[in-house]
């Protein structure tokens, strides 16, 4: 046993093992700095568990600790459990023994116990026990010029199954570990490349070596850390498993071959040139390997015994690699290392060192210079090295490198020993700064940062690892620094480079890109169709039915049928012109197909490719109430069946690949059309396939058109489905002891739960699922509070949302809870989201083993009384109605007018139950009237609406102020939607601006094209986006939908495709518009001209001639407020403003334009004759529009009084009572324009509510 304090290391002879009676234990001196306890096992061992105990007969114990390991005692690595947690739970007293089983065993000789927390009332003390067994291995040392060659007994070796295992360690990021190849083109190669393992395998003799068609798989990261890593390669035919440490990749090889044919030999450590041992084609391996097995053969053991089939070259059989000791800079604000300036013989100074980091910015080195008032800084800036000489108010700079924050080691050399400063990075050409006189360093060299008493710099301190420091060619001993014999330091960890690859494995879902810094990672979800901290939440609705319920009209939409599940979005056409909402999925064969000359021997076969994958199609069909597919078949002298024996001469193939010979919607096995059996045929050439389990048709085969004059013409329509079975799938709970049980759920790294409820009870558990210690629970904890609690091993975490109105009011309320490795969130109705950050280094995996209880708990207490519907878990909807049929105290469905699937309230209106009917609450809709379908805009007028900040924003301002820079940019968002008709250009459609002179303006340019101006950063020119170049000043109805989420902007014009844009803005400016919006003007001239650009002013000066309706900004409908709340202090009206029928006319035009277009294709309007004729003759193209002249002025209102805001700050701060700080989003716009009735499978972003 060995301990480390500030004064160095020494032996301890009086320690006792745990459980022994009597005095004993380790307790360092109070003055020791960063103490640790080291255990030498005398030989390499396989360690499986550790246990700790406090010092006996004392109050000294360790409550949390880190565990480090090393096989040399020089270079250390922190042990982490399988889920990434690096901190072990210790003791709460000095007597109990606390064991910790390792999730994966480690092979090591040395262990270090590093206390993190201990008895706050006394001091730390420790007794330890280590569990494991002996470990033996065969080791080979490769010096970069040697290799092992294993020669086969025959000329070549052909295998269909291979198993290769080995362990290696290296300090080099490049090098070949194994290679074999055959004359026919097969090869296998495993090599280190940029600190990762790259595996190449080719089994196809038609492929060229290392061609683009070969399989190349990359696994692992930071493998040049001088620690052992295990590799397992398993192959059977084309199936391959490649495992590095605990990370496995499963893949399949390309081509036709199944066997690997290797000629003569396999090489380990490099790829030698034929006939020239020791000469390599690629950089060879420099490091150690142990326990190297090829198909059960111990290669190193054969080499040690000098067997003739092994050529060992200069390989030695002990691992004597020198260790390169590093130190870790832990803090981006307070870490530093100061070293004294050493005198140089030639004048000036030189510094060399190596570093590695993930951070794009940080101070590496700084020092004061002589003559005075000069300073030299070397820092990482925007992922490049930047050398700056501060010289009497001037700055001279030199830069080097690109993406130096890639996690690899980089060598830096800085030299001032001549009349120039030279900066060299790795093997690149040097960069220089010329100087007039010799520069000398004075004081100290500061690495990584500056002490509080030193000169201050605004640059972040360096977070990362540094090693091999040399000043004036003299190496610096880091052990002397640690022992206090040299220099000074703060927030450093010695003997280890504690770097982690937080993107391995990639925890960003659905193809999101992972970006990391030293302390965290983030996900780029752009282009994935998902949002959130880990790209878990779909931005699309789950069905056309859901789009209709939020006020959308017919058009092409992307739907995500399984929500946050693995399936991606699919493009469909939603036909909403009928009472039923039809989902239309098109395929590649739209025109009629003529068939001649086919027979059973050479049939005509046509494959149909749909706009969705097979899994997406199956999910859509399963979730629909009914599906059908139209088939039109005309023939002459062509038969579907052989009338003699009933053999089919033509058939179709379903999505599962089964042949089907029935037609016309009848049941399988009946080879006739349904109308033939029912004797009601009107057109024998026109029928529907409607058996859901077999839809859609994937192939059609025609086999009887080879006779003279014989032909067939067929047309296969799109797949059409209606109804969403999940939306109104409900259960009613009448007894507290009753609950619905569902199987155990897998939700280790991420899950989301969403549902609707209505009740009159004061409290009750909606759902619960338990594990051994972990759990999930969502409950109504009081009449106005919904609580989401869970535990993943870091202790219970609780999120609560409190409503200012009771939730037990017999109305539907929406709940969505999500947990991922980054954060947890809870949404209730339109109330602000509540967020809770996950611990930075805590447990990640949620381990559940019990059943899911819906409407109650395992203890059958605190059950829920009321209705629950649309219960969805990770995109899977539970069939509550079917399960309720088997449980007493629970019934299927839910009584009440607002529980039906019919859309009683439109355009996001909320259905309110009454004792003898219902009413529609249109407060969150852009429309009004009894069913939220009325309101528009007419006459010459101007209108300004002042946004009074929502209660939720004011309520949570204190938390925003304290965490504005920590909030993700993705939480800043706006949603804008409006409909207009005009023939004028240029024209200003609307503006939104803030007291800080930020603004958004939507205009039509001179040529009528749409432009969106975003001015979020007042010191920069505005960002201008042009989503459509064609003219919108065409007298037609146009619906504009704009959604911004952080740096991403999404725009949809009418029912066209969504276009996305991205721009660069800093975090705070991206947030401001959402938080501090003050006024809205629509439409017309602008005031406050200082901050508007010339193009916007020009558009505003022309006024607006046309019709404007359905204006929505976030959760506010300014136009409706102006019409329905005249006299309000929030609304300023100039000139006449009254309701008109132009909004209704807009709906009429949309409906008529879409009517009759039953099977539209994206290209049909261009290519289809029927479509062209319809558009030419439809009366909707000649409808008379009512125009009005509208001018508007911008009124900048005074925002909330500072005194009120301050009081709310204090109130909110008083509410924070969790050890992990909760975050509450400002008035969240994800559900700003939606009521509980229309919130379907999840609470979507407003972008999704309107146009996706």
Automatic annotation (TrEMBL):
Record-linked SMART domains: EGF (SM00181), FA58C (SM00231), LamG (SM00282)
Any Pfam family the entry gives: Laminin_G_2
F5/8 type C domain location: 1-133
Domain (Fibrinogen C-terminal): residue spans on this chain: 535-587
Transmembrane residue ranges: 1184-1205
Cited SUPFAM superfamilies: Concanavalin A-like lectins/glucanases, EGF/Laminin, Fibrinogen C-terminal domain-like, Galactose-binding domain-like
Domain EGF-like intervals: 499-536, 895-933
GO cellular component: membrane
Bridged cysteine pairs (disulfide): 867-894
Keyword annotations: Disulfide bond, EGF-like domain, Membrane, Repeat, Signal, Transmembrane, Transmembrane helix
Family to which the UniProt record says this protein belongs: Belongs to the neurexin family.
Name of the protein this chain belongs to: Contactin associated protein-like 5a
């Amino acid at each position: 046993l060995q301990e480390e304090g500030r004064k160095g290391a020494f032996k301890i002879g009086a320690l006792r093992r745990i459980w022994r009676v009597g005095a004993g234990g380790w307790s360092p001196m109070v003055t020791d700095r960063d103490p640790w306890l080291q255990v030498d096992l005398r030989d390499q061992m396989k360690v499986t568990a550790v246990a700790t105990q406090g010092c006996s007969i004392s109050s000294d114990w360790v409550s949390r600790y880190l565990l480090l390991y090393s096989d040399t005692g020089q270079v250390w690595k922190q042990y982490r459990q399988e889920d990434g947690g690096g901190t072990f739970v210790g003791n709460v007293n000095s007597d109990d023994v606390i064991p910790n089983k390792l999730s994966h065993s480690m092979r090591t000789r040395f262990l270090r116990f590093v206390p993190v927390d201990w008895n706050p009332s006394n001091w730390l003390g420790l007794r330890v026990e280590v569990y494991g067994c002996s470990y033996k291995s065969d080791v080979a040392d490769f010096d970069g010029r040697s290799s092992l060659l294993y020669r086969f007994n025959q000329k070549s070796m052909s295998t269909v199954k291979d198993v290769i295992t080995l362990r290696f360690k290296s300090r080099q990021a490049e090098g070949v570990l194994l290679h074999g190849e055959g004359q026919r083109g097969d090869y296998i190669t495993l090599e280190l490349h940029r600190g990762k393992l790259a595996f190449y395998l080719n089994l196809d003799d038609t492929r060229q070596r290392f061609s683009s068609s070969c399989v190349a798989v990359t696994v692992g990261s930071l493998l040049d850390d001088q620690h052992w890593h295990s590799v397992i390669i398993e192959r059977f035919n084309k199936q391959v498993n490649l495992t590095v440490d605990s990370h496995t990749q499963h893949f399949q090889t390309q081509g036709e071959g199944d066997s690997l044919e290797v000629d003569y030999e396999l090489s380990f450590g490099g790829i030698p040139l034929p006939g020239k041992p020791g000469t390599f084609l690629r950089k060879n391996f420099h490091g150690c390997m142990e326990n190297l097995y090829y198909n059960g053969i111990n290669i190193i053991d054969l080499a040690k015994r000098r067997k003739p089939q092994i050529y060992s070259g200069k390989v030695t059989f002990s691992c004597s690699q020198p260790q390169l000791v590093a130190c870790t800079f832990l803090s981006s604000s307070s870490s530093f290392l100061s070293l004294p300036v050493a005198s140089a013989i030639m004048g000036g100074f030189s510094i060399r060192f190596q570093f590695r980091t993930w951070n794009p910015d940080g101070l590496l080195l700084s020092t004061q210079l002589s003559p005075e008032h000069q300073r030299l800084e070397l820092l990482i800036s925007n992922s490049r090295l930047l050398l700056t000489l501060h010289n009497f108010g001037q700055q001279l700079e030199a830069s080097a490198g690109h993406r130096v924050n890639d996690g690899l080691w980089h060598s830096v050399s800085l030299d001032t020993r001549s009349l120039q400063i030279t900066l060299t990075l790795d093997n690149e050409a040097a960069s220089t700064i010329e100087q007039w006189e010799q520069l000398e360093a004075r004081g100290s060299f500061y690495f990584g940062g500056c002490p509080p008493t030193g000169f201050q710099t605004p640059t972040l301190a360096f977070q990362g690892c540094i090693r091999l420091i040399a000043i004036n060619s003299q190496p610096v001993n880091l052990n002397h620094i640690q022992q206090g014999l040299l220099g000074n330091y703060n927030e450093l960890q010695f003997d280890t480079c504690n770097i982690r690859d937080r993107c391995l494995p990639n925890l960003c879902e659905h193809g999101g890109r992972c970006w990391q810094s030293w302390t965290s990672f983030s996900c780029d979800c752009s282009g994935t169709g998902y949002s959130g901290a880990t790209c878990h939440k779909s931005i699309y609705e789950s069905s056309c039915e859901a789009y209709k319920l939020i006020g959308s009209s017919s058009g092409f939409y992307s739907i995500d049928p399984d929500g946050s599940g693995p399936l991606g979005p699919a493009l469909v056409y939603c036909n909403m012109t009928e009472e039923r909402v039809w989902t239309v999925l098109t395929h590649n064969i739209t025109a009629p197909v003529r068939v001649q000359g086919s027979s059973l021997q050479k049939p005509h076969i046509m494959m149909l490719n749909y706009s969705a994958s097979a899994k997406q199609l199956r999910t859509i069909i399963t979730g629909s109430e009914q599906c059908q597919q139209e088939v039109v078949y005309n023939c002459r002298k062509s038969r579907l069946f052989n009338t003699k024996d009933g053999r089919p001469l033509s058939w179709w193939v379903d999505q599962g690949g089964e042949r089907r010979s029935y037609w016309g919607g009848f049941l399988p096995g009946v080879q006739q059309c349904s109308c033939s059996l029912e004797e009601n045929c009107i057109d024998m050439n026109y029928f529907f396939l409607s058996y859901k389990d077999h839809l859609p048709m994937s192939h059609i085969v025609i086999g009887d058109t080879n006779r003279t004059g014989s032909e067939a013409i067929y047309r296969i329509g799109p797949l059409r489905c209606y109804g969403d079975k999940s939306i109104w799938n409900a259960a009613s709970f009448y007894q507290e002891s009753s609950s619905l049980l569902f199987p155990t759920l897998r939700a280790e790294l991420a899950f989301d739960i969403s549902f609707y409820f209505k009740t009159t009870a004061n409290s009750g558990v909606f759902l619960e699922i338990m594990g051994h210690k972990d759990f999930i629970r969502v409950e109504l904890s009081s009449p106005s509070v919904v609580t989401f609690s869970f535990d993943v091993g870091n202790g219970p975490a609780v999120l609560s949302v409190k409503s200012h109105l009771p939730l037990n009011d017999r109305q539907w309320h929406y709940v969505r809870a999500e947990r991922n490795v980054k954060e947890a969130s809870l949404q209730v109705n339109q109330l602000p989201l509540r967020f809770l950050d996950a611990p930075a280094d805590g447990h990640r995996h949620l381990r559940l083993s019990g059943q899911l209880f819906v409407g109650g708990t395992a203890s059958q207490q605190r059950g829920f009384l009321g209705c629950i519907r649309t219960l969805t878990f990770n995109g899977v909807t539970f069939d509550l109605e079917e399960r309720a049929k088997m449980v007493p105290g629970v019934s299927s469905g839910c009584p009440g007018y607002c529980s039906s699937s019919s859309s009683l309230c439109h355009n996001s209106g909320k259905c309110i139950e009454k004792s003898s009917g219902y009413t529609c609450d249109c407060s969150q809709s852009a429309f009004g009237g009894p069913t939220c379908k009325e309101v528009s805009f007419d006459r010459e007028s101007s209108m300004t609406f002042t946004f009074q900040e929502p209660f939720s924003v004011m309520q949570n301002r204190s938390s925003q102020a304290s965490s504005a820079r920590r909030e993700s940019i993705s939480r800043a968002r706006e949603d804008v939607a409006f409909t207009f008709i005009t023939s004028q250009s240029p024209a200003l459609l609307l503006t939104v601006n803030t007291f800080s002179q930020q603004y958004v303006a939507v205009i039509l340019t001179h040529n009528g094209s749409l432009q969106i101006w975003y001015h979020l950063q007042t010191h920069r020119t505005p960002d201008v986006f042009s989503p459509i170049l064609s003219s919108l000043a065409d007298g037609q109805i146009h619906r504009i939908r704009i959604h911004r989420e952080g740096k991403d902007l999404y725009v949809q014009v009418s029912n066209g495709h969504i276009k996305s844009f991205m721009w660069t803005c800093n975090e705070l400016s991206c947030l401001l518009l959402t938080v501090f919006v003050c006024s809205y003007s629509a439409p017309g001239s602008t005031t406050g001209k200082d901050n508007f650009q010339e193009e916007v002013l020009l558009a505003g000066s022309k006024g607006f001639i046309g019709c404007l309706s359905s204006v929505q900004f976030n959760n506010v409908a300014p136009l409706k407020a102006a019409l329905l709340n005249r006299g309000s202090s929030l609304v300023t009206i100039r000139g006449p403003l009254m309701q008109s029928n132009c909004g209704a006319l807009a709906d009429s035009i949309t409906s008529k334009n879409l009517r009759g277009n039953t099977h539209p294709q994206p290209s049909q309007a261009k290519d289809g004759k029927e479509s062209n004729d319809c558009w030419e003759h439809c009366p909707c193209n000649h409808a008379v529009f009512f125009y009005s002249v509208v001018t508007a002025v911008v009124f900048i209102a005074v925002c909330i009084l500072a005194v009120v805001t301050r009081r709310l700050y204090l109130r909110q701060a008083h509410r924070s009572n969790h050890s992990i700080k909760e975050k509450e989003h400002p008035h969240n716009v994800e559900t700003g324009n939606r009521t509980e009735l229309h919130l379907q499978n999840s609470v979507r972003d407003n972008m999704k509510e309107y146009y996706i």
